[in-house]
Amino acid sequence: MTETVVVAGLRHRYGDVVALDDMSWTAEAGRITAVLGPNGAGKTTMIEMAEGLRCPDAGTVRVLGRDPWRADAEHRARVGVMLQDGGLPGGTKPRRLLTHLAAMHRRPADVDDLVARLGIDAFAGTAVRRLSGGQRQRVALAAALVGRPEVIFLDEPTAGLDPHARRDVWRLLDEVRDLGATLVVSTHSFGEAERLADKVVVVARGRVVAEGTVDEVGGSAGLEQTYFTLTEDVR
Ligand SMILES: Nc1ncnc2c1ncn2[C@@H]1O[C@H](COP(=O)(O)OP(=O)(O)OP(=O)(O)O)[C@@H](O)[C@H]1O
């Protein structure tokens, strides 16, 4: 199986804080990989490195065979990113923003279709700063998908969404995966990991403590119980 994301021996400190301590994992092509771990485990730091936004102190990251920190614009266009806080410009209206982003890509998704599928229609003409947290999440997800990227990093994509919106997002992510994209999704939801993930990576204290399918990681105890056992001592 082709490994689209390879993280090997990643180390990173913020002053005295060790954020990543020899972290290694892979995400396979055309699969959804869910990254689970307690607050402060190092998920965001690691995902920012895979996105090319942060340079590790040591270790290597490869995305589509390239070092994301040194990658050119052509590589970056193949990678979609949904940041935890959205990172959206407050004064822009969602449809205008998505149309603008679509124009930057060679083979963009259909903006009207994305807007309809993620239930953005109702607020497509309202400035981002006036939107609720869940509405902004949906726009941020659409922005990550509009360029039809081959690899997509999503930091807690359904946090704060109501059940209908969450279901819509899961269906859309399934479809994007079925079209061949590789997705890496960080989440605090066992239900989300069980529903979506072909593979689960559990991180704690900057290291991977389990990696495999939901069944392989959860075993007979189940994912939730196994997670608590693996991460108990970090609380
Ligand atoms: N810019 C920064 N400066 C200093 N310390 C940081 C910075 N970013 C993260 N840290 C620290 O690094 C560690 C890992 O943080 P990170 O945000 O990567 O964890 P996380 O697993 O994404 O957490 P969460 O689930 O809360 O999003 C934490 O101890 C955090 O306080």
TrEMBL record:
<keyword id="KW-0813">Transport</keyword>
<feature type="domain" description="ABC transporter">
    <location>
        <begin position="5"/>
        <end position="230"/>
    </location>
</feature>
<dbReference type="Pfam" id="PF00005">
    <property type="entry name" value="ABC_tran"/>
</dbReference>
<protein>
    <recommendedName>
        <fullName>ABC transporter domain-containing protein</fullName>
    </recommendedName>
</protein>
<dbReference type="InterPro" id="IPR003593">
    <property type="entry name" value="AAA+_ATPase"/>
</dbReference>
<dbReference type="InterPro" id="IPR017871">
    <property type="entry name" value="ABC_transporter-like_CS"/>
</dbReference>
<keyword id="KW-0046">Antibiotic resistance</keyword>
<dbReference type="InterPro" id="IPR003439">
    <property type="entry name" value="ABC_transporter-like_ATP-bd"/>
</dbReference>
<dbReference type="InterPro" id="IPR027417">
    <property type="entry name" value="P-loop_NTPase"/>
</dbReference>
<dbReference type="InterPro" id="IPR050763">
    <property type="entry name" value="ABC_transporter_ATP-binding"/>
</dbReference>
<keyword id="KW-0547">Nucleotide-binding</keyword>
<keyword id="KW-0067">ATP-binding</keyword>
